[in-house]
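Recall from the previous chapter that SMILES is a line notation for molecules. Here it describes adenosine-5'-diphosphate.
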Amino acid sequence: MSILKIENLNKSFYRMENNKKIKKQVLKNINLEIKKNESIGIIGNSGSGKTTIIKILFNLESADSGNIYFENQNILNIKGKKRSSVYKNMGLVMQDPYASLCPYMKVIDIISEPIKIHKIENEISKIKEYVSEILTKVHLDPKNYINKYPSELSGGERQRVAIARSIATNPSFLVLDEPTSMIDVDSKNGVLSLLNELKEKEKISIILISHDISTVLDNCDKVVVVKNGEIIEAKSCEEIKTIQDNEYTKELILASKDLTNYWEYLHKKSLKEA
Ligand SMILES: Nc1ncnc2c1ncn2[C@@H]1O[C@H](COP(=O)(O)OP(=O)(O)O)[C@@H](O)[C@H]1O
Ligand SMILES: [Mg+2]
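With both inputs in hand, we obtain:
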C-alpha cells in the first residue's frame, strides 16, 4: 500500500536578466511512489532539484502542476485542520543541524514545540515525560540532554535532537534532506543506524536525500536518481548494484565502489570521445 504518491510534478523558477524574465524548469514531470514502511533514497548532484521536491511536499514552495497524495489524500494546496493533521503525520529533518535548531531554546523546548502545536500533551510534567521518551528513542540520555542548549551539543547530537523533534508527533513518514552531510563519519553512521531502527521499530516510511549513492545503497530499499530535475532511474538498491540503465547512474555506482576503476573508466571514455 502506498503512503506517498507524487504524480507529474513540475516546477519552474524565474529570474530577471536584462529586464527579461528568464524561466528555469527545475522539476520535470516527477513521479514517485513510496509504500508503507519502505525507505527510498533520492540521489543526485547539487542543484538537481532534490530539495525543491521536498519543499513542495511540505508546502514550503508551490508546484506549477502535478499532484501529491499522502495516504490517498491529495495534499497540494491543502488548508486548515486537514493540513495540520496531514503534517502531524510527516516529519522533516533538514541538512544543517546548526541552522535548524533555535539557539535560544533548550532541547526540551525544541522537542515539545510540535507536541504543544498538535496538542498531544498540555500538562508540563507529562510533556517532560513525553520528551524524555523521545530522547531515549534517539539514544540521548534525557538526564544529560533535556536542559541543554544547541550550542552545548555536537553536530551528531544536534541532528539526533532534530530527528527527535521530527518524530515527536509520532509520524508514519519521515523525510531527511542530506542529514549526514555536515557531521563527522562516526556521527553519520550513528544517525544512519538510528534511521534503520526507526524504520524497523516505529514502522516509519523514510525518504533519505543524499548526494552519496553508497549511503543510500547501504541504508534504503529503493533508490531514485535525479539529474537536472528529472528522475532518470528508479530501482531497488539490490538491483541497481548490478543493472544500471543510465550512464550517469553507472558512473555513480562505479565511483562508490572503486575510485581507481572509476578514473580508468573516465579516462577510457575520454579517449573514445576524443
Ligand atoms: N527559491 C529559488 N529561486 C530560484 N531558483 C531556485 C530556488 N530554489 C532553488 N532554485 C534552483 O533550483 C535548482 C534546484 O535546487 P535544489 O532543489 O535546491 O537542488 P538540490 O537540493 O538537488 O541541490 C537549482 O538550480 C537552484 O539554484
Ligand atoms: Mg538540497
